[in-house]
Design brief:
This is Aldo/keto reductase. It holds the Pfam family Aldo_ket_red. InterPro entries: AKR_Detox_Biosynth, NAD(P)_OxRdtase_dom_sf, NADP_OxRdtase_dom. This protein is of the alpha/beta class. The chain has one domain: TIM Barrel (Alpha-Beta Barrel), CATH 3.20.20.100. Helices cover about 40% and strands about 15% of the residues. The chain has twelve helices and twelve strands. The chain has an eight-stranded parallel beta sheet with strand order 11-10-9-8-5-4-3-12, with helices on one face. It has a two-stranded antiparallel ribbon with strand order 1-2. A two-stranded antiparallel sheet has the order 6-7. The longest helix has 17 residues.
Amino acid sequence: MKESRRLGEGDLIVSPFGLGTSTWGTTTDFDVATSQMSTYLAAGGNLLDTADVYGDGHAERFIGRMLGAGLMRDSVVLTTKSAAVIVDGKPFADASRGYLLSALDASLSRLGTDHVDLWQVHAWDRKVPIDETLEAIDTAIASGKARFAGVCNYSGWQTAVAAVRQASKNGRPLASAQVEYSLLERGIEREVVPAAKHQSLGILPWAPLGRGVLTAKYRHGVPEKRAGSRFFKWYVGRHLNDRAAGIVEVVASVADELGVTPVSVALAWVRDRPGVVAPLVGARTTEQLEESLAGADLCLPEEHRLRLDEVSKPRRGYPEVSI
């Protein structure tokens, strides 16, 4: 990864791909997570993304163990998230000031550090006034426990409201918006991308490989064992349809023409979209991560990029497109 990018308007300088840790503590054990971390750093990466709910806290504990075992704190831009609450397997949001600050303290304890570089509110909480949520951000930054803050999974209007309200105060402006974004999920282009651009928020795409579908591993069917999984149906199933299949075919065709993998093509496309700072690449195994990083410096020729743009073009209309 030869280049670096600025996240927001502050001094957060990050690599063009971040390392996601959502599998750590579930399908990825500590030894494999350590191998992934070493591989990522060796490739020139520095953006490490986690959350308090990943692996029920184990992802943060893994990072804390790595820091305790010699991983240099200043070698990574460390980001975590708070606000998501899992009850009986179902996600809820609690973005109240008290809960957020308590959750941040718990995250710092698991991480084994006194601060994170970027603290993100994991979900919008309709029960809590946005000003109360922003108060928690101001308190965290003033105390030195977070250097910058951002939002995650906010809609366009939610992103705009949070960013404008924060900018109207004397507090530090929001730095980022983390959202799902890939060739299979371009919905953020309607409202989130314009809102983020207007308020100078850097976009951090999660699931840049379309929840695994853009790897082309499901082109010829889904293994029976996976197809019967409730999680697979919920998480991956939404991208297994005729439209997605057509996009994957074009991705595979472009990859063949360029002599690279579909993974490299899909990641290069989203990395270079307007407003994007760093797609977050997660993997169950080190081999999967190596495949993602292998094409980190791929630059898509314009003719191929335009083909991908066209086949994945999202529906746009009123009011996004003016009359």
